Amino acid sequence: MNDTATETLSVVVEREIPFPPEKIWRALTQPHLIEEWLMKNDFKPVVDHRFNLRADWGAVDCQVLAIEPNKTLSYTWAAYGLESVVTWTLTPTRTGTRLRMEQSGFRPDQQQAFHGARFGWQKFLAKLDQVLAQAA
Amino acid sequence: MPKAHDVLFRTLADPTRRALFERLCREGEQTVGALTARSGVSQPAVSKHLGVLKQARLVRDRHEGRQTHYSAQLGALAPLIDWTSQMAGFWQSRFDHLEDLLKRMDQ
């Protein structure tokens, strides 16, 4: 194949949010609030704490790696053999907070595990049908 | 479009072949006989389709006694998938939910 198997991929999403870091921190670290925007969970803001994020398509296994209140939060993210690390960074700005999420550490050869899993398969096959219909 | 895409598209463009591949993806390893029973085409036709899928590395065969078992090789689809953009889409939508929640939350 090629040499890219040793490279890692990452996804970064960054957004300016018109609320102070303290408020965003609560949404990122309180289980009943996390559930409202991400998934059901048993998160605790304690380093080394293991927790799950649960959705109808399955669960994500996580472990807290680092916590600095109102500034940074990082945890592992493992689903269907796909291992990665999610890191949240909160930076105060004049009007609120710059919120940055980086999910990193995947290798391209782990894409197979991710896509072989239930998550996304139906959607993927539906998309493939569309692509093939357009190509025909 | 890269050559790897051409082979995959050509291989999966045939509806019967695609149905066989999708069944192996959903239901796991199966014999030619089991695949034929529900495919609506003859066993030689199924074997021929499986041969084309195998050439495209979409399936792998395993011989056991007189039976040949086929299984899907999902890794062959990797060139078609832009994984990072899918995950980025997931997080973008979570950020939207997070912002909605922040608007509803007390100070």
Concise synopsis of the structure shown:
The complex is a heterodimer of chains A (136) and B (107). With 136 residues, chain A is α+β, with helices and mostly antiparallel strands.
Write the layout of secondary structure elements.
The complex is a heterodimer of chains A (136) and B (107).
Chain A: E1 9-17, H1 21-29, H2 31-37, E2 40-41, E3 50-55, E4 58-68, E5 72-79, E6 82-92, E7 97-106, H3 111-116, H4 121-135
Antiparallel strand pairs in A: 1-7, 2-3, 3-4, 4-5, 5-6, 6-7
Helix pairs in contact in A: 1-2
Chain B: H1 3-13, H2 15-27, E1 30-31, H3 32-37, H4 43-55, E2 59-64, E3 67-72, H5 83-104
Antiparallel strand pairs in B: 1-3, 2-3
Helix pairs in contact in B: 2-4
Secondary structure: helix percent of chain B: 55-70%
Average residue pLDDT of chain A: 78
Please identify the oligomeric state. heterodimer
* Spans where pLDDT lies below 50 across 5 or more residues of chain A: 1-6, 112-125, 131-136
Order of helices and strands of chain B: HHEHHEEH
Low-confidence stretches of chain B: none
Structural summary, described in words:
- The complex is a heterodimer of chains A (136) and B (107).
- Chain A is an alpha+beta fold.
- Chain A is built from 4 helices and 7 strands, in the order βααββββββαα.
- Helix content of chain A is 27%, strand content 42%.
- Chain A has a 7-stranded antiparallel beta sheet.
- In chain A, helix 1 (21-29) packs across helix 2 (31-37).
- The longest helix of chain A has 15 residues, at 121-135.
- Chain A starts with 8 loop residues before the first strand and ends with a helix.
- In chain B, strand 2 (59-64) and strand 3 (67-72) form a beta hairpin.
- In chain B, strands 1-3-2 form a 3-stranded antiparallel beta sheet.
- Chain B has helices at 3-13, 15-27, 32-37, 43-55, 83-104; strands at residues 30-31, 59-64, 67-72.
- With 107 residues, chain B is α+β, with helices and mostly antiparallel strands.
- In chain B, helix 2 (15-27) packs across helix 4 (43-55).
- The A-B interface holds A 9-11, 13, 15, 17, 19, 23-24, 26-27, 33, 36-38, 99, 101, 103, 106, 108-109, 111-112, 114-116, 120-121, 124-125, 128, 131-132, 135-136 and B 9, 12-13, 18, 22, 25-26, 74-75, 77-78, 80-81, 83-84, 86-88, 91-92, 94-95, 97-102, 105, 107.
